Amino acid sequence: MPSSILIPSDEMIKEHSGGIDRERFIAMGEEIITHSMIGFGKLQPEQKFLDIGCGCGKLARPLTKYLTAKGRYDGIDITQEVIRWCSEAYRDHPNFNFHLADLYSERYNPRGSVKASNYTFPFADNEFDLIFLGSVFTHMLPADTGNYLKEIARVLKRGGRCLATFFVLDDVSRANAKAGNTSPAFTHEYAQEGCRVEVKEVPEAAIAYEEGFVRSLYASSNLNIDIVSFGEWGRKRLIPHWQDEVWSSKPLA
């Protein structure tokens, strides 16, 4: 099946890709794969790639043109609709696999049967070369994020890398948030020190973590933070991407 066909409906894109349109869905997928995963992450055509929070295949689609038969793509999502659609749409790509994680989320999956803080990724140890999480930790509470990072460290190969996006509170973004210059504003302190939320009643709607807290979570998960690249959400559009990017790697020994 040619990659041009692997495009979900406009309604599905809007619902499960942050409200963007079809053109942006295609462009963002191509950009992330070309510049971040291949350019910076050095993903090779024969390697194994894990997409956590895969949605309706924004990254899977361009990877069908890059990964060889020796390579592999695995996507995880908590929404049954997108996993069902992707599994059917990619049926002619046997090295592309989609997995439903029936996790509880007050906003995204209120009927989920498992807490993210207890979830075990359905993969063996040391399996993946590169892992991506786009706007996943921006909707996860601390215990859930901590468990995911430990699972990421488990399934990454030695020397493997991970890119995850966050809302990181440092001196600049924190000051801008207090001044009302950011979106989201994160006006509420969460029960646990180290994070703030946008909607007090539904904390998973948008959550920001203090930089020191993020670094402590990674350290306790045996992941090295290689670089933190700050996005425009908390910096008044001074840097040309939205969320903050955290690149990490699993130690070689």
Short descriptors:
253 residues, alpha/beta, 7-stranded mixed beta sheet, 4-stranded mixed beta sheet, 28% helix, globular
Low-confidence stretches: none
End-to-end separation in angstroms reads 41 Å
Largest sheet: 7 strands, mixed
Gyration radius, to the nearest Å?
A: 17 Å
Which structural class do the helices and strands define?
alpha/beta
Question: How much strand?
Answer: 15-25%
Order of strands across the main sheet = 3-2-1-4-5-11-10
Taken from the alpha-carbon principal axes, the silhouette is: globular
Q: What oligomerization state is this entry in?
A: single chain
| Fraction of helical residues | 25-40%
Write down the secondary-structure element order.
HHEHEHEEHEEHEEEHEE
Mean pLDDT: 92
Count of discrete alpha- or pi-helical segments spanning 4 or more residues: 7
The count of β-strands is 11
Give a brief description.
The chain is of the alpha/beta class and 253 residues long. The protein has helices spanning 10-16, 22-40, 60-63, 80-89, 142-155, 171-178, 211-220; strands at 48-52, 72-77, 96-100, 128-133, 156-166, 168-169, 188-189, 195-197, 207-210, 224-229, 244-249.
